[in-house]
Structure formats: structure tokens, C-alpha cells
């Protein structure tokens, strides 16, 4: 099998942007995800990927890397690079519908993209639409207001301003009142929403979704620094009680968005890696879903070290068995650049190991 892996930030999406203007947080996270998924996929398939040659990368020589041309459009270059591939995994920001457009273009040319269908990507990329769907399904979620909406009665004492199609924590801010958040929104161009702030522990959990099953992966604690919500990495696994809360809430969120009728008979049904961001409160009754990511998320760089299974093989349909944990690893901590600190399990040696971005398994 030959697979194309396209990651927007390091794979050419920013090739025409001056180096000094590159968004460093997205670049670090994107590079970490790209290296991790390419390494895992290369252990079960031949991998083709594109690279912005200005940026540092440490790809295995067995992986075919194609430099992008900054003067040309990205989509045609990705389509050309993937022409002889059996499948494609695309990682891109939701901003400006980039992920939606890339997946649509690949499917329009008959490419087998390991990604959710268009309805799912659309519903999760538009945060206001997602909010309405979650609340309509009685899934706990912060009350949210679009540009022309005024606040209803709420017990919230703080509010979040975020882009309606934002990626990660980029440009997310917290304010002490709705009025402050709204005043800041009025000063900005683009589509912004205001959400009630919910205190608690930021948690993420991902699943690999196939037409026949949803395979939940270990939940992760997210290290996020307020007030600008800068992502600094994560750790996993969580205590069992917290992990169970995260999985139940995330499952309800996916159930609210999935078009179940299309899962078995639609060639572009919900297949692939999906991440859910949550806040777990002191009182479980106050837990909320924050958003759903219809693509690989940064937590992949850490969670993969907990698994005996090759998650890329599961995504590509090369391993039909449910993913299983690696008993030789008890815990993993990682930073935003993908550097992981791996704690051995009972069957491993007693020392801790450091790894850059990924580890051969």
C-alpha cells in the first residue's frame, strides 16, 4: 500500500508566507503530528509526503518527500503527489474551511481520503453550528452567541471570544464580562463567537472511527495556559474515573453529529481520526464538550506511545483489530513540539526515556 500524508503547515500550506511571519504554535504542533503519523504509516505502507523545504524536518530516507513550489497553488501539488497512492491522510486547520476544501478536492478527483464526510467536517468546523447541534441533543456545552446574537440569561461570570472557524487555541481570549468580549469582537474583522467560560481541567480524547466501530484511545490531560489558552502539551492516561467521564461525554458529542444513516453505505462516511476537547469540572454534572476536531490532533504524538497497536495501520484499514495498550509503558508526557517523556510499565526497566517527536516501536 502507498499512502499520501499532507500536513498543511510543514507540507506547503505556508510556503508563500515569510519565515518571520509563520505562526510558531501551529507550526510546532503541525510538525510534531506530521513526523509522528509519517513514521507510523511508514511501518505498514510506503509513504509519500510534501515538504516546505525552508523548514527543518527529520524524515526517514525511506519516506518519499516532495518539495512544494511556493509560487504554485497547494491543492494541485498535493493531488499530483498523491496520484499513485492508495489512500491519503490530510491534516489542516479548520480556518477558512481549509480542511473542508482539501478533503473535497481530493474526493472530487477520486482519492481515498481517510477523513470524515463533508457534513461532519462542515458541522464541526463551524463552531456555532456545532454548538447548536450539541445543545439540541442535550450534550453539555457552553452557551454560545454569534455576531448578531445577544446574551440570554446565564450564570457565567467569564466569557471566551474565539474565531468561529478557529484552529486550536489560536486567538482565543477570556474576558470578565460578556460586554468586554463583545466590545473586542466589534473591533475585529471576521466571524467570531462568544462562549460562556467553564472552569475545570482541559481534557482531550480521540477515537479512530471506521464504518463498523468507534475505537476510543486513552484520554489526555491538556496543559493550557490562560488567559490566551496557549497549548503546552499533555499527558496520558488519566485516572480511570476521569477517563470514563471523558469517553461518555465525547461519545454523546459524536452521536449528536454523526449521520448514522450514511456510515455503512457512503464511500465518504465518517472514517479516520477524530478528537474531542472537553472541560472536566470538580462536579461531574458541570462537565462540558468544547469542540470536535475532524482530523488528527496534537495528542496523537503522545497517545501513540501508549499503544502496542500501530494507529496508522488501524486508520488505513490494515489492522482490523481494536487498538491495544502497550504494557511496557505506564504513562507519557509531551510538549507542544512533540518531545515525549515516557514512563515504563511493570514489564519495562525502571529508568525513564526521552524521545524527540516519536519513538520506534
Could you say which overall geometry the principal axes of the C-alpha atoms support?
globular
Main β sheet profile: 9 strands, antiparallel
First CA to last CA: what distance?
A: 20 Å
Number of strands: 17
Query: In DSSP terms, counting alpha (H) and pi (I) runs of 4 or more, how many helices?
Result: 9
**Unreliably modeled segments:** 261-265, 348-361
Secondary-structure element pattern, one letter each: EHEEHEHHHEEEHEEEEEHEEHHEEE
**Strand percent estimate:** 15-25%
Q: Radius of gyration, rounded?
A: 20 Å
Kindly describe this structure:
The protein has helices at residues 24-42, 74-81, 98-108, 118-125, 127-136, 178-186, 240-257, 300-303, 311-315; strands spanning 2-7, 46-51, 64-67, 87-91, 144-145, 159-163, 173-175, 192-196, 201-209, 214-216, 220-225, 230-236, 272-280, 288-293, 329-334, 340-344, 353-355. With 361 residues, it is an alpha+beta fold. It is globular, with a radius of gyration of 20 Å. The relative contact order is 0.14. Mean pLDDT is 88; it is low at 261-265 and 348-361.
